[in-house]
Design brief:
The complex is a heterodimer of chains A (about 500) and B (about 350). Chain A is mainly α and about 500 residues long. Chain A has 15 helices and no strands. The longest helix of chain A has about 35 residues, at about 160-195. Classes of the chains: A mainly alpha (about 500), B alpha+beta (about 350). Chains A and B meet through helix 1, helix 5, helix 7 and helix 15 of A and helix 5, strand 2, helix 6, helix 7 and helix 8 of B.
Amino acid sequence: MSAAAPIHEIGERSLLPEGTTFNDITESVCRVTETKAPRGWWILFLPSLGLLGLMVACIGYLVTMGVGVWGNNSPNYWAWDITNFVWWIGIGHAGTLISAILFLFRQNWRTSINRFAEAMTVFAVLCAAIFPALHTGRPWFDYYLFPIPNQMAMWPNFKSPLMWDVFAVNTYLTISVIFWFVGLIPDLATLRDRSKSLLRKRIYGALALGWRGSHRHWQHYERAYLIFAAISTPLVLSVHSVVSFDFATSVMPGWHTTIFPPYFVAGAVFSGFALVLTLMLIVRTVFGLQNLVTLKHLDLMNKFMLGTGIMVGYAYSMEFFIAWYSGNPYESWVFFHNRLGFGYLDQQGNWGPLWWSYWAMVSCNVISPQLFWFKRFRTSIPVMFVITIFINIGMWFERFVIIVTSLYRDFLPGSWGSFEATWIDICLYLGTFGLFLTLFLLFVRWIPMFAIAEIKAVLPHAHPHAHHDDEHEHEPHHGAETAPAPAE
Amino acid sequence: MADEKDQPRKKGTLIGVGAPSADEIAADAAEKAKAAADEAKAAERIAERAAREAADDEKHVPTKATAKAADEAEDAAEEAELDASAAKAAAEVAKSAAKKAAKASFEGDEAHAKEEAEKAVAAADRAKKAAKAASDAKEQAVAAQKKADHARMTHEGEGDEPEKRPALYLAQYETPEALAEAAKKVRDAGYEKWDCHTPYPVHGLDDAMGLKPTKLGFVSFIAGMTGLVSAVLMIQYMNNWDYPVIIGGKPNGIGGFPAMVPIMFELTILLTGFGTLFGLFHFTKLPRHHHPIFESDRFEASTDDKFFISIEVGDEKFDMKKTRALLESTHPSFVELVEEEVG
């Protein structure tokens, strides 16, 4: 909610089409929640509900049978579960980045995507939390993770990075929910004031907390928003850093790396933007919201993906450099034999059997986003849709590569193994998509999926400005001179 | 006086029949008066009940209709009582007039007897009328009571215009510029309990309204520091004092500080977040689901595309005429007096 006028000197244009009025925004956003769901919504919703059922069934089976139904086994005690956890947490990071960091940097274009991305953050973190909770083996004892007195009279070990994770993820979830909800209050009030039926009025009215757009409130509200952005920024950087500590503080070759925290954060943002964009492209088409999320927004998001894609590419290559430069044979073994499948062969003269996962990661994450150097591809919806899917896949493989290929062939050839996913690994992962998409589709249907108040605030005529008379401004500047509209 | 003879004769005929019946007249009047008094008593009882019930209702479901119906019942009862006492008085007069008439007639004073008889007849008539009025009043009371009952049972009265009192003036503006200009005028006029209502935060309104900077940051900071300190105390208590855990030879006290940093950080953030949220609630006095401003239908546009200024009645400078004049001088689309329901 910052100064809105585009800087024409550097070629900036208004974010939304010329002549967009406040009411246009209210209408186009609220309409989604007030009309019948389009067929596309049902086509997405019913399979999502089915996948959610699959997830519930898988969790039931897993809790009944024990974690042995997963493919995790010596030497891969961590596998898909932690991969999925890191992947989902990473997805969430885009939301916080967009809502908090881009806010602090006064990137007004974020207003069209931030609500959307924040919702994804909340849902993605919920999906992520399922995996470590189940991975404890006895999820009914998960309260041991929290510093609450228990019958063993023992406290958690606060020196453990896994404990840090508990705090980081829970804080992240809590703050994301609060930030999201505070951002929603004015928009829920808009829905309340437009409600025709008593039920809608009651529900949205209750959620809007009696918001009446008072400037005395806006003053505190804007400060609160700024504070949330200011605390979320280091928070989001810390969460994936803490997740990376799970690996980096161990002594496993391939994990014990100081580059991990920034590398994980960049990867998280990368994958998060990709998933935001994938879903945004679908929702934008299904609900016909091309006026609010313009090609300009998509173009900017693609630039972000190009940038973060290059960062992770840099991290990948730097790991290899350090593996070679450190002269540590174990480190080199992990990178060249286990991952790259090149340079180090085992006694039978073979490459590491999971080499293909590394190359899947590189082609998806490093090679495919290079197309975004070209404006033609950055503004082509089919191209960006395919690339975002690639990036989502690639970032999943990145976590798989980090976890499994570091573990499956380590110091002792006698303890080598490989990894094969079981059907429940696969179904549970697919099932979390059900949870995510169900929540997400309910969100787009019932909650304003664009920050109405924030988009209004970035329209060119949103603020009284005496300081610059710009030939591009068409709105009357001095209200006192405008003829008062006749009273009804 | 020419037809004095005729007249009395005529009357005389009447009195001739009537004079002996002066007692009858008086008895009749007394009966009427008694009936009127009875009616009045009944009306009073009914009205009392209606009033009591209406008062009860007003505690729970205050509707204008019940109150009005109760008032009507009460009025009717009062009327009935008045009529009844008038009837009584008239009956008294009729009685004494009839007595006098009978006496005069007995004494042979025809003229006087006639006069008194006339008086008695008139008084009896009055008593009759008063009794009828009392009866009518009772009927009215009954009807009013029924109405009150009905209103109470069905709350039909909610559809009626409830009693209201002014709460605030609401002025609407079409652009943020107009709003900011108007806000400056209201600020300069020295109002305190007033506000701007906008669909999004309009920049420059802080100054235009003369608002002091928010103290929310202070609250958040205190909350954050609480989080930081509690993280240190928690970790030290749990891992160093209550049940020392020594892992990998890492020290527990200040020497183990680096391992404490992530949780110190997270708890600082967590409590800052809560502090900000509840600080926001504190400063904005939200959630608050009822506010007289919502009585205005026009105000619904405040979350869409219109801009409003409200000045509350509670302001010391508020004046029905002057405040309206001030708002009208700021070129609003219109000014509206928003009323809230009483009770």
